[in-house]
Design goal:
heterodimer; A: about 600 residues; alpha/beta; five-stranded parallel beta sheet; disordered C terminus; B: about 325 residues; seven-stranded mixed beta sheet; six-stranded mixed beta sheet; 15 strands; about 35% helix; globular
């Protein structure tokens, strides 16, 4: 039985399957499919490569402008944009040797290296879309070769004779172009780059220099003379731009600054490590004048319903694709029946009570929704976090905290566990298996994965502080959950004031490793915005918290939050008096500390 | 051809070779003392001790001991393991100085405790300057035990984490973006670091190599290496398998090149990450010098098992590089 949650590299998925599996996200990220330069930032697993895969012509011909599957594929000419995928692989462009020439024409040589590399990929992509071999295409593409390509090469200093045989097919012409580019790429790498080592003097480069504005951009404009191309912008989908070296990133920024996006739009994905927004001339590129940016993580903190629907649709599509009898995600990941019915009982009682007290129906429901789960945890299971079940699709979506690959990863583990524990046809995942696996996953995140990050970190002291901060926040939220506070589902800390450098640094570290999410909210005085740090709900099972999507936040001064960096237990003690009915006994279990520590 | 010798017999062997220049690297490991102690009293013209003084203080401390033991001809040369360009310039300058002062000097390089990256840069420069050098010898001290502070085989570790992955200067390879990619890992003990490399590269083809049982330093090491290697194959079932020598760089080079002759890997962009001992790293360097299309990647660890990395064995491996 196929595990429907198996991760596949988007490159390996066939267009038909991809269209079945991909849930269009452009309602939220509306800038991505529009002309204009865009940076798309998100951690590994947030769906960048999948989005790019969907935008490629072989998938786009299968869907309409809204991403809905068409009965018959449309023509390339009818596409809303023509995109070309350019992955930046590790070790391809960022070669240490190129830094051996850091004075003499460094920018030009890096740009040449990038342009030839990009151009080769572009023509390989054209080769693969299988353009019809007819008279019109032959004429137009050979005209492009003779007028645009050859001239652009000549102006770049390439003097070899690259005459084209007559009457070649589009495929043959593209192959010829790739061959010429490969020769140029090979000459640069073999005759220049490799000779930088051991050269006592700066090594002169005598080959052609192919640049963006004089070469690549001209070629891309030339594509528009072909009748089969859409009269729309060409998108270069540059994936993982963090893999470029600093000089190359500045060069890419320089291309962004050219504002040529009506003709050629650069869609640049990064894994949040790009960090440089200066051009090669050290002028800054800014949003929205030069580019727009999309942060894939923001959706969970700003539009939770959208995220829920997206995961719902992704899971439903996968279950449908692999022909499961149950394709409704709610039924495939059922909650623990007993727990759900007890919580429902509490909810119904609260609704009845509150209506009796004179609240209207909406207010009564709101009260019941807000208190039923916390009260169940506090009273029915007496705060025993090992007894509370995290099964159920809704809870699991909340726990995945906006990272789709996170949901897919633990769903994969749940499916494997179900297969091994209950062999046979799988109709759904048992709630006990879901609960056990999600708790295991949550422990792994805060223990093994954290240890791994700590091991890999330059500054272990900072990682220890981050761990204290997370323990402090988790412990505080747990204390609030079991208290008599009016709002007991707290998952975030809002700061009254700006954190100092040290605290900011640790909070950023938490965001960088995905343990925290950052957002802004209106401050209490209504005079501006405050920083909000949300604990990743993947830690909810570890701390025994209620992961429901709506949650309040705890306002505090940054100097108070800072106390947690050195001593998470003292931090909780300090806040205990501000939390009505808070108890510390429970707290100790969460911190896992004793007085000797 | 590599000769395996007891360390007490090494002096007799090396005395016949008229070594002019001895190059080694200080380390936090006691293995860095074995060959320099044999060489003390040897009529050297020059001795160079490299040290990464941005790393553990123990490296600096041990470098000073080495300097005293080797004597007046010894020059301590600081490197910075975070600055590959700076290191390249320093190593190149040292070699230039040596070749300008001495006519075709015979070189002995103790590869044991170099970082993989510095060793590969040194190898490349030595090959580039071979016209100005006499005979070039490499020596390596094996370890009788690794990770001595670990209770069980499962806990054994030498280094953890990957701070940075970069191409090694001198081995940029040839990249053709229209071709598929191939990552070859010379696996040692560290499964986590290997997985991290696979994840970071996201290449379509993976080859995982493990130590050849006939050419391993210690059978117990080979057993751990083999078991962990098997576990990796469970996780990456599509990966190809190859074996490589840990005792003979030429053999390791030939095994790597032989693996790449497989039609599956023809014309691919191949990157090799050597994560095992220095003999196999030299073999990797020689393979990439012979086939310049190969790129070598260095995965700088975050931490080393400084307190229990290894115990020196009595065996040394001595080889002459002939071009």
């Amino acid at each position: 039985m196929t595990n429907p949650f198996e991760f596949k590299n988007p490159d390996e998925i066939k267009p038909n399957d991809l269209v079945d599996l991909f849930v269009p996200v452009f309602g939220e990220y509306y800038n991505v499919p529009r002309s204009g330069h865009t940076f798309i930032n998100g951690p590994r697993g947030s769906g960048k490569s999948m989005m790019f895969r969907f935008m490629r012509p072989d998938c786009q011909v299968l869907v309409d402008s809204n991403g809905k599957r068409l009965k018959r594929p449309r023509k390339i000419k009818d596409l809303d944009y023509f995109s070309i995928y350019i992955p930046i692989k590790k070790g391809h462009l960022n070669k240490t040797d190129i830094q051996l020439n850091n004075k003499h024409g460094e920018a030009l040589l890096n740009e040449h290296f990038m342009v030839v590399h990009f151009a080769q990929i572009i023509f390989k992509e054209l080769l693969e879309i299988e353009i019809a071999d007819n008279k019109k295409n032959r004429t137009q593409i050979s005209k492009f070769y003779n007028n645009v390509f050859t001239n652009a090469l000549r102006f770049s200093g390439y003097s070899e004779n690259i005459e084209l045989n007559k009457n070649l097919s589009p495929k043959n012409i593209f192959e010829k172009i790739i061959e010429v580019l490969r020769t140029i790429h090979s000459q640069f790498q073999h005759d220049y780059l490799k000779k930088l080592i051991g050269s006592p003097e700066p090594l002169p480069y005598n080959g052609p220099i192919l640049l963006y504005t004089d070469f690549l951009y001209d070629l891309l404009l030339g594509f528009k003379t072909w009748d089969f191309m859409p009269p729309k912008a060409i998108f270069l989908l540059i994936d993982d731009a963090d893999e470029l070296n600093f000089t190359q990133r500045k060069i890419l920024n320089s291309w962004v600054s050219l504002r040529t996006s009506n003709e050629v739009s650069l869609k640049i994905s990064t894994q949040l490590k790009y960090k440089i927004y200066n051009t090669i001339n050290n002028s800054r590129i800014d949003t929205p004048h030069d580019y727009t940016d999309v942060n894939l993580n923001d959706i969970y903190t700003t539009k939770k319903d959208v995220y829920y629907s997206r995961v719902h649709e992704i899971v439903a599509r996968r279950l449908d694709k692999y022909k499961f009898t149950i394709t409704d995600p709610e039924a495939f990941f059922p909650p623990d029946d007993k727990q759900a019915s007890e919580i429902d009982k509490i909810k119904n009682q609260y609704i009845k009570d509150k209506i009796g007290e004179g609240l209207n129906k909406h207010q009564a429901y709101d009260y019941a929704y807000r208190y039923a789960v916390p009260d169940y945890i506090k009273k029915n299971i007496e705060g025993n976090r090992y007894t509370f079940s995290y099964a159920g699709f809704g809870q699991l979506v909340n726990i995945s905290s906006g990272i789709i690959r996170e949901f897919i990863a633990f769903a994969f583990e749940m499916f494997v566990a179900q297969q091994s524990q209950k062999p046979g046809i799988i109709k759904f995942i048992d709630p006990e298996i879901q609960d056990k696996q999600i708790k295991k996953y949550s422990e792994w995140k805060i223990e093994s994965e954290f240890d791994k990050y700590r091991d890999e970190s330059d500054n272990k002291r900072d990682m220890d502080k981050l761990r204290n901060l997370l323990m402090g926040m988790g412990g505080l939220f747990r204390m609030i959950l079991l208290s008599d506070s009016s709002e007991r589902r707290v998952f975030s800390v809002a700061l009254h004031d700006e954190p100092d450098e040290e605290l900011k640094n640790i909070l950023d570290l938490g965001v960088q490793h995905g343990y925290l999410q950052k957002s802004m909210i209106g401050n209490k005085q209504g005079t501006g915005k405050s920083r909000l740090y949300i604990l990743n709900r993947i830690l909810a099972p570890h701390f025994g918290l209620d992961p429901s999507s709506f949650a309040g936040y705890k306002f505090m001064k940054s100097s108070v939050l800072k106390k947690s960096l050195d001593d998470s237990k003292r931090f909780a003690e300090l806040l205990k008096k501000s939390v009505k009915g808070a108890k510390m006994e429970e707290q100790m279990q969460i911190f896992g500390q004793d007085d000797d520590n | 051809m590599t000769t395996k010798l007891h360390k007490d017999n090494f002096k007799d062997k090396v005395i016949q070779k008229s070594i002019d220049v001895f190059i080694t690297s200080s380390s936090f490991e006691d293995r860095c003392f074995v060959i320099p102690r044999v060489m003390s009293g040897y009529p050297l013209k020059t001795a160079i001790v490299f040290l990464n003084n941005n790393e553990s203080d123990k490296i600096i401390f041990n470098a000073e001991i080495l300097s005293k033991e080797i004597g007046d001809v010894c020059e301590l040369v600081p490197l910075d393991s975070d600055s590959p360009i700076k290191n390249y310039i320093i190593i190149e300058t040292i070699l230039r100085k040596i070749t300008s002062k001495q006519t075709r000097p015979n070189l002995l390089i103790d590869s044991t405790t170099f970082t993989h990256e510095s060793l590969l840069v040194l190898l490349k420069l030595v090959v580039l300057k071979k016209e100005h050098l006499g005979s070039i010898y490499f020596v390596y001290v094996g370890a009788s035990e690794y990770s001595i502070n670990s209770k069980s085989d499962d806990d054994k570790w030498l280094s953890k984490g990957v701070q940075k992955i970069r191409t090694v200067i001198g081995y940029p390879g040839f990249t053709d973006p229209t071709q598929k990619n191939h990552l070859m890992i010379l696996f040692g003990f560290e499964s986590e670091r290997t997985k991290r490399l696979i994840e970071e590269f996201e290449y379509e083809n993976i080859s995982l190599g493990f130590a050849d049982i006939d050419h391993s330093i210690q059978n117990n090491h080979q057993k751990i290496n083999f078991e962990r290697h098997q576990r990796l194959f469970v996780e990456y079932p599509k990966a190809s398998k190859f074996t490589f020598s840990l005792t003979d760089p030429i053999e390791a080079k030939n095994q790597i090149l032989q693996h790449l002759k497989n039609t599956r890997f023809k014309n691919l962009n191949t990157v090799i990450a050597p994560l095992n001992n220095k003999i196999s790293t030299i073999g990797t360097g020689l393979a990439a010098i012979e086939n310049e299309n190969i790129q070598i990647a260095y995965a700088k660890p975050n931490i080393y098992n400084i307190n229990g990395y290894s115990v020196p064995s009595d065996d040394v491996y001595f080889s002459e590089l002939i071009f």
